[in-house]
């Protein structure tokens, strides 16, 4: 396995749907684990909660590099459910990153222009938190099928 950049560990959560990883970022208490739990309720797999390790790995089949997300060594197979406790979860193996959800910023546009962010010198779709019950379902559908104006 060849890494062009060092591994980094972020205070974040990560889930996987259809082999595509969603990195959920935000400050403490912003709802990262809560969103991950909602996505898990819809069928997403948990890659890591509270800490996520990221690195760049060569994808020989596509002849390019991709950002991978996985659980750091020693991370317990748990997810925090606020006001419930720590729940056991089966951690999924590392996955290619597909998109990022920023829980610190709230989306106010009904049909926002697709935003992007850079992680380890690679560009990814960026979503701001939506304070609506459909946010998790919308992210699930994005991970499954992409968006009309996205290169997914």
What would you say this structure looks like, in words?
Strands 1, 2, 3, 4, 5, 6, 9, 10 and 11 form a 9-stranded mixed beta sheet that branches. Strands 7-8 form a two-stranded antiparallel ribbon. The protein has one domain: P-loop containing nucleotide triphosphate hydrolases (Rossmann fold), CATH 3.40.50. It is mainly beta and 152 residues long. The protein is globular. 14% of the residues lie in helices and 44% in strands.
CATH fold title:
Rossmann fold
Distance between the termini: 25 Å
Q: For the residues shown, what is the average pLDDT?
A: 91
Q: What is the total tally of β strands? A: 11
**Tally of domains:** 1
User: Regions with pLDDT < 50 over 5+ consecutive residues?
Assistant: none
Helix content: 10-25%
Helix-strand string: EEEHEEEEEEEEH
Largest sheet: 9 strands, mixed
The number of distinct helices, counting runs of at least 4 residues, comes to 2
The CATH class designation is Alpha Beta
What is the CA-atom radius of gyration, in angstroms? Answer: 15 Å
Shape: globular
Structure class? mainly beta
Residue fraction in strands: 35-45%
The H-level CATH homologous superfamily, spelled out, is P-loop containing nucleotide triphosphate hydrolases
Quickly give the CATH architecture: 3-Layer(aba) Sandwich
Quick structural gist:
This protein has 152 residues and is mainly beta. The protein is built from two helices and eleven strands.
């Amino acid at each position: 396995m060849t890494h062009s950049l060092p591994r980094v560990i972020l205070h974040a959560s990560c889930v996987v749907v259809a082999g595509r990883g969603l990195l959920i970022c935000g400050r403490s208490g912003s709802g990262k684990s809560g969103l991950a739990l909602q996505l898990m309720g819809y069928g997403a797999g948990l890659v890591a909660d509270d800490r996520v390790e990221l690195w760049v790995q060569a994808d020989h089949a596509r002849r390019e590099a991709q950002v991978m997300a996985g659980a750091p060594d020693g991370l317990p197979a748990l997810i925090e459910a606020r006001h419930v406790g720590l729940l056991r979860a089966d951690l999924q193996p590392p996955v290619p990153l597909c998109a990022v959800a920023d829980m610190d910023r709230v989306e106010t546009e009904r049909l926002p222009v697709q935003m992007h962010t850079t992680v380890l010198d690679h560009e990814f779709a960026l979503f701001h938190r939506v304070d609506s019950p459909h946010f998790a379902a919308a992210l699930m559908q994005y991970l499954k099928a992409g968006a009309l104006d996205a290169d997914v």
